[in-house]
Design brief:
The structure is a single chain. The chain has one domain: Glycoside hydrolase/deacetylase (TIM Barrel, Alpha-Beta Barrel), CATH 3.20.20. 50% of the residues lie in helices and 13% in strands. It has twelve helices and nine strands. β1, α2 and β2 form a beta-alpha-beta unit. α8 packs across α9 and α8 packs across α11. The longest helix is centred in the middle third of the chain and has 30 residues. The chain is globular, with a radius of gyration of 20 Å. It binds zinc ion. Zinc ion (ZN) binds next to β1. InterPro entries: Glyco_hydro/deAcase_b/a-brl, NODB_dom, Polysacc_deacetylase_ArnD. Pfam families: Polysacc_deac_1. This is Polysaccharide deacetylase family protein.
Length: 302
Amino acid sequence: MLKKIILSFCLGLSNVAIAKSVALSFDDGLDPSINSEAQQINEDILSTLKENKIHAIVYPSISKIGGTEGLNIISNWGKQGHRIGNHGNLHINLNKNEVNLSHYLQDMQQGHQVFSSIEGFVPRYRFPFLKEGNTLEKRDGVRKWLSTHNYQSGAVSIDASDWYYNQLFLKYQQQKDQASLDKLKQAYIFHLLDRAKYYDDLAVQTLGRSPKHVLLLHVRAINAAWLEDIIYSFKTESWEFIDSDTAYQDTIYKIQPNLLPAGESIVWNIAQIYGVKNLRYPAEDAPYEYLNLAKHGLNIEN
Ligand SMILES: [Zn+2]
């Protein structure tokens, strides 16, 4: 009996000691001809990653970065040891009825042509909006393209709504509303940690283990400003940062769920397969954040 208690105690301790692991991924990129801060935002994110010795992956989309100058900015990721994947050309939502397979494949191919020659490129494709097809033909057609081109899906396990918090960040910044920015920072970090815990708990509940996670973020001003705080907060909550190649070796990223519409976080897909109740769709979206923002003193009118 005593032996059993000691064993349980040791197992308990070892569970505590093993940190949860996460790789950072950043989508889209910015077009310097539209956003005058594009280069600075990119540099700030890269310098925080460097200071923290974290290697991440960026998934640029041609339409989001614009022309040659935008491509040069994104190329700095590869030069600094990060991975560069493919996020297509026109940032198309595959689940829209008007989007057909051949047009979508052409868009992926265009992304491949531009990004595959850059230092640091890896054949990983990040689906825009995490939408992987609303018909069998589209879903399986894209999966076939990925397999034929030796591509891996640049899947996400921790989905979040940084793009929405960024909209608020830009609004308060423009209004020079420091009080709201301070509240937003707390709300944003709480949101990211909350989503990380949510998806990790969902994985443990279904698979019985904590997988190597991939967190979805974007190359945006909010992350240039607060990435250091995000990293610090995750470390405080026992998260360990790993590089994207290590994360994508986890077998959960080999799963091709037989679901329609396809997409969202891979952990969310697994939860669906396991019959977990009350999963919202889409998994993450702006309206879900109103409550968290209100709790942090920001009442969003809508
Ligand atoms: Zn995107």
